[in-house]
Amino acid sequence: MTRETETTENTASRLLIVGAGGMLGRELAGLLREAGRGPGALGRAELDVTDACAVKDAVAGYDVVFNASAWTDVDGAETHEDEAAAINGAAVRNLAEACADGGAKLLHISTDYVFPGDATDPIREDAPTSPINAYGRTKLLGEQAVLEVLPDSGYVVRTAWLYGPYGRNFVATILNAATQREQLDVVDDQRGQPTSTAALGRRLVELADAAHRGEAPAGVYHGTCSGETTWFGLARAAFELTGLDPERVRPTTSEKFPRPAPRPAYSVLGHGRWAAAGLGPMPDWHDSLREHLARAAAR
Asked: Given the DSSP bridges, would you call strands 154-159 and 64-67 parallel, antiparallel or unpaired?
């Protein structure tokens, strides 16, 4: 683990990313390093988050901890719920308790899957939770740990439909499939907010800075891009922005793609709490997708 000196004034001087080897963690580390803010960065190989003593030692000396570590295999959690709960629940409590001992603020990444997906309007941050699958239940355990242990310095940031340049995600999968098949059937009965890791990463840094300055109240925030669409709509947009014929994408239903874990039909999250932190809504999902694809084309 490397601890570099923070050079930006009036911001958190000591930042740690846990889960730095994942899709969001890598993006967040890159954003901070580009800004000259060199965070500590720990991946799975460097830190066993289920080891409370190791977590306490790792967190010591930091002002803000970003927790991007998680069990993310939604379908696998159906048959391995205890293992998923160890990462998404018990390990988060380890981090929260370590932050409480060391006086650090914790920004923990959660998910829309804590909701049942039966809403018809954007879901408020304080809406009742009721997960419909094992993954959602384990992520809710993590949320509860943060809010219980760190009522004044814990931040739960729920995100959804995340994609980025690192790791497996829908945008990369659908564009790869376009090179192999002429027609693609994509689900059109699930609604949500496609969110790039770049957009979420920037918002997490803004929230961390506001929290460190004492300007952002602790609690739950929704870290998704503005607007909404379906997986079918996202696929068509990705095709259009990469010069492919969107008519190659055809709508279908979730019934045509049965999965072990049920998915929420409605995952549009409300963003009312950002105003309390002095921040506006995150960018529109179209704009973030355009930025992501332009970055990918430039690499």
From this structure: unpaired
Amino acid type, 102: G
Is 154 part of a structural domain of the chain?
Answer: yes
Task: Please give the residue range of the domain that contains residue 217.
Answer: 15-167+195-227+270-283
Catalytic residues: 135
User: What tokens were used for 138?
Assistant: 């384990």
Q: What angle do CA 264, 183, 186 make, to 5 degrees?
A: 5
Terminal Cα distance for the chain, rounded: 28
- Return the half-sphere exposure (C-beta side, CA atoms, 13 A cut-off) of residue 118: 7
Confidence of residue 9 (pLDDT cuts 50, 70, 90): very low
Determine whether 243 is exposed, middle or buried from the number of CB atoms within 10 Å of its CB (0-12, 13-18, 19+): exposed
Q: What is the pTM of this model?
A: 0.94
β-strand partners of 250: 185
Residue 46 lies in a domain: yes
Give the Cα-Cα-Cα angle 44, 48, 50 (nearest 5 degrees): 130
pLDDT of residue 1: 43
Mean pLDDT of 141-162: 98
